[in-house]
Amino acid sequence: MAAGLGAIALPLCHRHFAADGGAAAEGDGGGGAVADGAAGERERRAAWAHALLFHLARDPDLKGRIVVELEALTQRARASDRSKLRAIALLAELGAEPPDDASLADPESARLRSSRDLALCLGSPADVARAGDHLLDPDHGMSERELLDLFDDLIEADPGAALLLVEELLVRDEIDDTCRHELRQRRAAARQLAPAASPPRWRRRPSDALSCRAAPHRDGRRVLLVCERQPGSRPPRRRALCALVSPRGLLLDAHYAEDLTLDAVESELVAPLEREGFALASVPLDTARGFLIEAARQAVRSGHALPRPFYLGRHVLGLHDEHLEGTARAPAAVDLAALLDRAIGLVARGEPAPALPLLERYVADVPDDAEGHAQLGLCRLAMADAAAALDSLGRATWLEPEQPLHHWNAAAAAHRAGRMGACYLELEAYRQTRERDVAPGAEVRGAIAERFADEYARLAVLEHPGASPRAVASAEDTRRRGGGRSRSRRRQRG
User: Fold this and answer.
1) CA nearest neighbour of 93 among 150, 140, 42, 136
2) Is the pLDDT of residue 490 over 60?
3) CA 469 to chain centre
4) What angle do CA 54, 57, 60 make, to 5 degrees?
5) How confident is the model at residue 269 (pLDDT cuts 50, 70, 90)?
6) Which ranges in 332-439 belong to alpha helices (H)?
7) Are 339 and 323 in contact (CB under 8 A)?
8) pTM surpassing 0.85?
9) Quick check: 221 and 213 in contact, CB under 8 A?
10) Which residues are within 8 A (CB) of 69 and not within 5 positions of it... i.e. 6 or more apart?
11) How far apart are CA 195 and CA 227, in angstroms?
12) How far apart are the first and last CA of the chain?
């Protein structure tokens, strides 16, 4: 209908496109669920206007008018950030650049809203595959840093959606090793924050919704054609994935198409294959899945990049990363190394709060890893919880007593907690292992340890003649810890 109206439909589409559900709801005077419903309806109308404007822009005469209106919206002072972001996104889809003077009132919150909008678009495996393909499109122009920043925002806005999209990108071949390492860290963080989220997996579809056909060729090649009816499409429309496999069993090429009629499937896909000598015949769903998984797996093992249409269309058979099983890129159930790396990076950047649950998860899964306990202690120390930090660092020194930095850090936590006896004992242990301290600043640490330990020993002998400094420190720390527990019990009884 919109196409039939042409230019007449533009004002109505632009009006709904520029509406902002969030801003309008705020002005409704706190109408609760009614206001939320009205805001949601405005968002739905804006989404429809987005789709209709994109459709109308196929007309070259209308496209120019649409682009001009969108550019004006990005510069309108009273327009909301949400509507401006929507306009910038549609301009990009139409191949147009936003004006240089386009501005947002609050770029930081706008980034988070943009991430939430992206999360709302990831409603199906097909949506996730399209989003991943768009982000990795070489013509898209997104740098590695921009990609990682996007996921940092998305993890904050919707960890579950972030997990789905990170999982998608890590399956792809286009990611280099550095970016893959960074994304693995973000996947580990998203899994901790959204443990119930999981990548979309295969569900057996009714036989009338999916058809699978395959055929060998006399030269040894094989072809697979899978068609799925799009749910709710009227008249019926189909998605189709066609895969070509070499005589050696490697996935060579693929083609993926959407919005096909049954006649189009037969004329555009089946007929050309038959002319090439492929006599297609129906095969069971499980056979089709196994065939495509193995062909993709053999390609990965041979070092061949998989064709992009495979990633876009594999959801038709309900596939995600099954083809990576048994290869060097097989995903771990919980990527603990990446989880620890991510947490260490957050603490180093001065962000201990988001690192804390990651480190707690890590030491729960790897309780005998001294480095995990040490990093958890440093994180707690950065959050001014010296007592808890000392517990974690003490565990690290027990697991790895020959590591001098564990003792040094435990001494720092004890000093911060006011437990000077424990501080002396840890510094004595540091002095005994000091020759292994080769990290930068070792000389300064050694001098501080010498001065503190010598002064503590001098005072201990003066106050407790005949007792060794170690015995004094142990007794003092026992009193300190006992006093802390007594006060805690009194607070609980009170």
Assistant:
1) 140
2) no
3) 52
4) 165
5) very high
6) 336-348, 352-365, 370-382, 386-399, 404-416, 420-432
7) no
8) no
9) no
10) 10, 14
11) 33
12) 73
